[in-house]
Sequence to fold (189 residues):
Amino acid sequence: MSMEKLRSDMTAFIDDLYAGEKKVLVFGEGDPGATVMMIGEAPGEQESLLGRPFVGKAGKNLDAFLEGAGMERSALYVTNTVKFRPTKISPAGRTVNRPPTQEEIGLFLPWLKKEIALVDPKCVITLGNVPLKALTDRGQVIGDVHGQFLDWEGRLLFPMYHPASVIYNPSLKEVYRRDIDVFAQWYQK
Fold:
């Protein structure tokens, strides 16, 4: 299967499953032969509008951290666990992001695994608890395993906090920088 076939099949899957609802597929992007794949939770508003992963505030944080560590985003492959923006209506009546449900994660996990198999990275970086728990199913939480290399299905797994966490909890900025520096040392070998 090619990446374009996967994208086409996933689009048809979303259109069939959510007929009548406006769900925008946000597929992964970057180097399809990358040695490193980064997996986030789900697209936000900007990602849904532009059809690209990590282009909002969290994406700008991610880009800044990567740049600071001397890494190029274009050399990586970046995607999400859930491929459309999960939303809810706020008390003010606005459409806002919400965490993906277990059902949504379960629906997209087989697609994510196909995407991982196509890229075939040496290392998968999970950004936050959603992708960490989806892939490992070990009940681990990001606070316990961030910044460590773990073995996962014949490749390395490197859990990190989600780049949005730094927006909501600025005290994590230094932790995030240390974790990405640890990863960059491995990456640049």
Observations:
- The mean pLDDT is 91.
- Residues 70 and 184 are 8 Å apart (CA to CA).
